[in-house]
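Tip: read the tokens left to right.
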């Protein structure tokens, strides 16, 4: 009888220890006290996609402060601390946020899972000719090839990224699999509808040229809808355009007869303003979505809101005349 009792007590203790270990493991995979999956996303589009797909099961924050320039963001030491408390770190792609790779490399063994959401998207290249001076001050030309990192501006790529985020969340939180898949699928439907509206707008417009006083962010959008696209700067807004680039933009305006120049979000549109004053064309915002202002973030602006704004402005800029 004694032996049986002892066996019973040993079994209870073993079960209790096992449960405790299970609780510990579960607790490790949900570091937030509220039981939600905690996610930190680098830039606005991935932040918003996680917010939509994750819904009530996920708490997500954007690593980059609102209003910050995304290409040249310099992570702070405190970012590592924040990330180590999260379950998942999501960034767009290594060409867009090279700094995210450095951050990921600095995470501890207990750190979050890392997802490069745009991995697998077919990337576009831009070949450019640069004017380089050698040591003897003689000039020669060189060709350089760079990857265009603004992959989310083709809405079919955005759908792919949304799907990848949904799959990753399901791996971390398998109980939410159906929930994430449903959210992703209804959002992908909305992206497809918007994509069709862009197609229709371009089909029924009088010009097909986007002249952009900002950096070269809309290559994917232009490619998707068969538009001609010229921009004042390269893939990131780190250099002031020279007189040569300004002349090129004005030549395109003359050649195509476009009535508007587009400018980018969050920075003073000096180039577009100068060209607008010189040529008399109007100015319109084309929002690439890298980041939003503090006020926009607080008011809950979404990626779809920004893209719908772009559709409205493209209709004006391209001379939409309806169906
Ligand atoms: Zn950019």
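Filled-in amino acids:
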């Amino acid at each position: 009888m004694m032996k049986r009792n002892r066996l019973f007590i040993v079994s209870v203790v073993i079960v209790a220890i096992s449960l405790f270990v299970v609780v510990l493991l579960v607790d490790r995979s949900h570091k937030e006290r509220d039981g939600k999956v905690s996610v930190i996303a680098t830039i606005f589009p991935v932040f918003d996609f996680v917010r939509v797909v994750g819904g009530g099961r996920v708490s997500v924050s954007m690593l980059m402060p609102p209003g910050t320039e995304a290409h040249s963001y310099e992570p702070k030491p405190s970012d590592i601390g924040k990330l180590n408390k999260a379950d998942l770190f999501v960034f767009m792609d290594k060409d867009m946020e090279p700094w995210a790779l450095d951050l990921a490399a600095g995470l501890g063994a207990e750190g979050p899972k890392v997802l490069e959401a745009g991995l697998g998207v077919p990337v576009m290249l831009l070949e450019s000719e640069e004017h380089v001076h050698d040591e003897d001050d003689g000039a020669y030309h060189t060709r350089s090839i760079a990857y265009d990192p603004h992959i989310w501006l083709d809405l079919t790529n955005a759908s792919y990224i949304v799907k990848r985020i949904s799959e990753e969340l399901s791996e971390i939180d398998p109980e939410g699999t159906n929930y994430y898949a449903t959210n992703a699928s209804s959002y992908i439907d909305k992206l497809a509808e918007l994509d069709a509206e862009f197609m229709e707008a371009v089909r029924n417009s009088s010009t097909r040229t986007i002249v952009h006083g900002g950096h070269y962010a809309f290559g994917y959008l232009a490619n998707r809808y068969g538009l001609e696209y010229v921009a004042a700067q390269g893939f990131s807004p780190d250099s002031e355009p020279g007189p040569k680039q300004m002349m090129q933009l004005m030549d395109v305006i003359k050649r195509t007869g476009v009535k508007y120049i587009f400018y980018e979000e969050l920075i003073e549109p000096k180039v577009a303003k100068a060209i607008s004053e010189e040529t008399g064309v109007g100015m319109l915002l084309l929002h690439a979505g890298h980041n939003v202002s503090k006020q926009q973030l607080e008011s809950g602006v979404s990626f779809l809101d920004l893209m719908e704004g772009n559709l409205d402005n493209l209709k004006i800029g391209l001379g939409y005349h309806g169906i």
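The chain has eleven helices and ten strands. Residues 2-29 form the longest helix (28 residues).
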